[in-house]
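re: that chain from earlier
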Amino acid sequence: MAELKTKRNAASVDEFLATVADERRRADAQAVCALMTEVTGERPTMWGGSIVGFGTYHYKYASGQEGDWPAVAFSPRKQALTIYLSDGFDGRDDLLARLGKHSTGKSCLYLKRLSDVDTGVLRKLVREGFQQLNGKSI
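^ sequence. v structure.
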């Protein structure tokens, strides 16, 4: 079975965020980092080379593949600021409707600009996602 390449590491979150080329994306990423730090009470850690994570949970699939992953995380991708809410969005339609401009994947929330969303709603989404998974095994 292939080993997961994206693992928690000791790289500096501040140094990583400083390398984000687009000034607005960098400012948005720093703001989301501060928001997630406050909401989770956790220190941010790097996962792989481009994901900033908070907390952790252990997963195991029926296939036997297992590993650790951040309970909530983000990455300042070129196309969008990607927020990872590993527990997904089931039952959160009301919050998503109030969030503002965004798109979603299975467990990813894509934001073009942080100013396009209600950060109070984003806080609630992050808090709920974190509380669902941090320190748990699924």
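The domain at 8-131 is CATH 3.90.1150.200 (Aspartate Aminotransferase, domain 1).
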